[in-house]
């Protein structure tokens, strides 16, 4: 393609090269391969399930080690709350209180989400705040018309001239209602972090946010810092980063031509959460917990959630200690056949490694090189919950182009929907990815791995979107816990459903994990 001066200026500003754009357009034209599923990961075949005794052993080990370590909680938090209110925005656009009642509208549109929203209205943490705003705005007007009041409630809640919740960062939206205050997801992450990331009195958290929300997050922390630190007896060290514009990707038309906006400018879109591998790569820590901003619970359940975080962390430290011991052994002397066999068993039993088919034919020197390569990688221990029909990724055995088979977290968009065999494997899946990871990103000498070296670039995917009513194709980088960690050493561990309580729509706040008993 030929770039205009305006295009060139845009690329320079974003720090994207023309070669990158050409490469991305080529990916649209060639298409990206679907992933090759070999089997579903299930208990006993890719997923571990621990006994209570084993859990306590891992927790005890984590607790004994953590004060010697630099521990961090990494929270992707760049999303706006807008998507939580999709059905409410549709209601604002479609509903006319002079023509029908809200019940009639709900029945006509089969709008069950809207029905649930109004049934649970006074259970939402924002209910009193919106009511207060309503009374200010309409104090002299007749408020006996239920249908009019309800459409006003939704508009006051979402619209810019009201409380503007529709444009609020998701992390700062009120999630939970306590006796004396409402708590945002951001605040709940601080309370939770104090239970398992605190070392020597300090808990470190890193939030990836949108640049325009930076001051709002800082302001929220300054308002609540003293109270939360007093309640948790914890000092908080909070840092922020932004998704780099250099990770944005070009959008194309259905014909794979660069999409131009009405002003003639090329359209670039954020490259998905896989772009955050850059942000993760910049962190300095021995252990990193990763959890999404909207996956929090009220105080009642926090200790149970923390219990399983410690289990995963204890398992990670156990694995690291063993892997580091083997790597040090390799550096100290030329290992013998018996030691080679011990390392093979460790990789097979713990990381479910499938050895190269001709491994036994390798010379001893090459066997050692091969095993070192398999051992000397970042490690992630991933919690998995039983599948309850939630949309999103899951744990599978995957075959790579090289012929290597490994455990991966796979998104549904990566799987060929028209391939009956692949879909039959999906149907056998028993577990779901709640984004509940504990990661080790350093080698045994304490040096950080360059995480970019462990990304599978072919695990990117193309999605269909619309802009101003026009169809476009968008390119997303390999997901942060999908292709961006494809070549890490991975284990999956079953954790209970209480650890997974995302708020994808506002009605999720009515679920027990978000309601104070």
Any overview of this molecule?
The chain has 517 residues and is α/β, with parallel strands linked by helices. It has 2 domains: 5-80 and 251-514, Spore Coat Polysaccharide Biosynthesis Protein SpsA, Chain A, CATH 3.90.550; 82-167, no CATH class. Helices cover 37% and strands 18% of the residues. It is built from 15 helices and 19 strands. It has helices spanning 5-14, 18-30, 52-65, 86-94, 102-109, 112-119, 127-137, 146-158, 185-196, 214-232, 277-281, 299-332, 337-351, 364-375, 420-427, and strands at 36-40, 42-43, 46-48, 71-76, 174-177, 182-184, 202-209, 235-242, 249-250, 268-269, 287-291, 379-386, 394-399, 405-410, 431-432, 436-440, 461-467, 470-476, 489-494. The strands form 5 sheets. Strands 2, 3, 4, 7, 8, 11, 12, 15, 16 and 19 form a 10-stranded mixed sheet that branches. A 3-stranded antiparallel sheet has the order 1-13-14. Strands 5-6 form a two-stranded antiparallel sheet. Strand 13 (394-399) and strand 14 form a beta hairpin. Helix 9 packs across helix 10 (214-232), helix 9 packs across helix 12 (299-332) and helix 13 packs parallel to helix 14. It is globular, with a radius of gyration of 25 Å.
